[in-house]
Amino acid sequence: MFAIGSVVGPAPYPEMVGYFQSVIGHEAREQFLKATGKLPNKVVACVGGGSNAMGMFSGFMDDESVEKVGVEPAG
């Protein structure tokens, strides 16, 4: 049973979350390329539980020219 959205816990949870969230990054990459004809210079994602960052960065992992920035909100 998949019960958490963070990239934590025993296997296979981190791999499952990464796979499910990867749709976000791949879709963002495709849409950005379609809209601009190039890749972004930088991609920014929240790193709180890791799922947002893992999802967004997954679409750009093989693109060395794209800077990946993880941010953590304070509060």
UniProtKB/TrEMBL annotation:
Coiled-coil positions? none
Q: Enzyme group, top EC level?
A: lyase
- Give a GO cellular-component term: cytoplasm
Which cofactor(s) are needed, names only?
pyridoxal 5'-phosphate
Q: Keyword set for this entry? A: Lyase, Pyridoxal phosphate
| Superkingdom assignment | Bacteria
| InterPro entries per UniProt | Trp_synth_beta/beta-like, TrpB-like_PALP_sf
Signal peptide range in chain numbering: none
Q: Does the keyword Cell cycle apply?
A: no
Which EC number applies? Answer: 4.2.1.20
- Please indicate if the UniProt record lists Hydrolase as a keyword: no
Listed GO MF terms:
tryptophan synthase activity
Report the function annotation for this chain: The beta subunit is responsible for the synthesis of L-tryptophan from indole and L-serine.
Per its record, how is this protein called by name? Tryptophan synthase beta chain
Q: Which organism is it from?
A: Psychrobacter piechaudii
Gene name, please? trpB_2
